[in-house]
Amino acid sequence: MKILVLNCGSSSLKYQLIDMTNENALAKGLVERIGIDGSRLVHEGTGDKFVLETPIADHKAAIGHVTDALINAAHGVIKNIDEINAVGHRVVHGGEHFAGSVIITDEVKKAIIECADLAPLHNPPNLTGILAAEELLPGKPQCGVFDTAFHQTMPAKAYMYALPMELYDKYKIRRYGFHGTSHRYVSQKAAELLGKPVASLKLVTCHLGNGASVCAVDGGKSVDTSMGFTPLEGLIMGTRCGDIDPAVVQFIMDKEKIDIKAALDIFNKKSGVLGISCVSSDFRDIEDAAAAGNKQAELALDSFCYRVAKYVGSYAAAMNGIDAVIFTAGLGENGKIVREKVCGYLTYLGVQIDLEKNNVRGKFVDIGKPEATVRPLIVPTNEELVIARDTAELLK
Ligand code: ADP
Prior knowledge:
The chain is an alpha/beta fold. The protein has 14 helices and 14 strands. The structure holds adenosine-5'-diphosphate.
């Protein structure tokens, strides 16, 4: 069985074709700048990268180029579109509608539109991708895998904000959490590495990329997570501020004489480690600058790690102890300095990092000293594989 996995953003589309007999990606790629000047497809299938620079007006055209690349005589990996058995779509927000992955029906599409209010930048392009794929691959089952679904097991005490209850009743304002596909996958893989059933473990998973979130996973279920109503809450991120006093919003608007849109732009795009460091949103640049003596870069790095550690500590309290701390995503998998600094705060819990074992990138490995009673682990994430697995499961 071969599953096409699609992740549609507003002007981009990431894809993988996964062969479920061995769970290998036969091909993967990216379409960038959909609907704007300079659009292109970068495809990796057999051998060399194939780059196609051509105007790509919309998502339907983009998916058309993807399927063309997949069956292309030189760069393709299948002979015929019919070899694709189903399509799995990443959908960011499922609200309270979805606690798991589903086959896309008219009802599901309606629910995705209903959630567009909650994720205006993500759900509309996700749905556009679904509609385009339905047209271009008629008769193929389409499945939706939601970033929020894994967190639907959170208890009300974790997901409710202390706001008037009527705001929840009227608008469903609450914490939803994101990166659920990744937190689910790495918590299960961590259990493999620890040689214990996930149902018996208390884990804290740290998904540290440009966007970053921490999740408390008790017995394989999400019981708390740092992102909230939107992905702006929680950790300090590449360009997002994470937790701040809500009173700061009005204060900045008054002092800077800006409207709410401009204020949100600051919180989403100009804050985080970029804001503190004035160097970059990329941790590689920040680490280099800090090593060269840039104090603001050093502060950004310290503030980021401090916040991660505070969340891990609070989740250890929430679950009354933990068995392991898991690092994943671009920074979690590659950033040894960040792992070392975060673990440095957690020795009281029993985390003991082995600096030699920590000196790796992207490995599936336990980086703890033998005596560590709480194991620090690196677990590379694979959200596309989860989407493909869920899709294959739904087809059964
Ligand atoms: P996203 O999917 O949210 O865009 P990723 O999970 O791809 O993000 O993570 C990207 C981030 O990972 C980069 O911003 C960079 O800070 C960090 N990163 C990647 N490689 C390294 C590395 N070798 N050292 C430190 N940080 C790294």
